What does this fold into?
Amino acid sequence: MNKYRVAQVGIGHRGVIHANAFLQISDRFELVGLCDINQERLNGYANDKKLPSEILFTDAEKMMEATKPDVFCFVTQPDLRLPMAKLAGKYNVKGLAFEKPMATSLKEAWAITKMCKDKGIKAIISHQHKYLTSMQKMKEIVDSGDIGEVSYVNATCQAWLAQLGTHYMDYILWANNGSPARWAVGHVHGKELLSDHHLSPNYTMGHVEFENGVRSYFEFGKLSASHMPKENFWVDDRLTVYGTYGYAWGDANGRWGAFTKSSGGDVIGEVGDDWGTQQSTRLQPLYMKDFADWLDDDSKVHPCNIDISYHGYEILEAVCISAVDNIRVDLPLDPDTCEDIFERMRKELPECPERVN
It folds into this structure.
């Protein structure tokens, strides 16, 4: 096992979780650089973790030049994805880790993906709900064949497309063992969130057929099906896999359920640790350990690798194009000919204020 030098940009809420994971698995990573434009926040974290002042920076490029890391991690707002990724290429890192959504346009997502391919950079995007015990149990049941042959996959989340929708599109692909999409149709409405940092229509609904014949139905936003009280908005999301015999589901709040061949006619399930309990202590360290293993060994491809993330982004782009143009959209898409779909939605979607009940 190798140990990798890592430099990170961003020490906000999510940045703390990333940095804590690097420090926790110190046998695999050495944090040699930490950068944030907020000096007070940077110093506060460094003091709390007793980090040396010489690894602290307020300029990302100066940090990269000084530290020459093996791994570059950035935890920033989405509009900085491409310039941060370009730094990874400029300084020839081996690994790149960053947050979702992976970009703010398909062209940008492809530019990052292509750069990583061309330079041999192994990249991962933070779709780490796969490491939740509930999701792991759901996937175990599906892979065992206990629900029969998979026929379709359903996903719902209250949060919008660029917040948790990219997560659940990724998990749909994961549950279906990476079979690529053949076509997509969709509906979107509401433009309020197109001005958010995580720009999205207020509501997105999609239907996709994959090359292996499995279909998926999903919805993201406040009109999607809810499974929890309103105070659990940020974890009110669920992935359900249906087979020829039964089904299995998992959610971000630690719950799973299933009806299977071996359950004897009963619906089984369990309530485990929720997202808040697992994200720092379990998810992020496991996610990063798998990254180190992939850096060690090409055959140990990370489940959150950039290729699956790019295809998930591409599918969601196709859903939005379908919604605006009222057509079925076949995949793959050509990123060079795709318009900025978010800009089109800003211009073309009607005002659609949410009804208050």
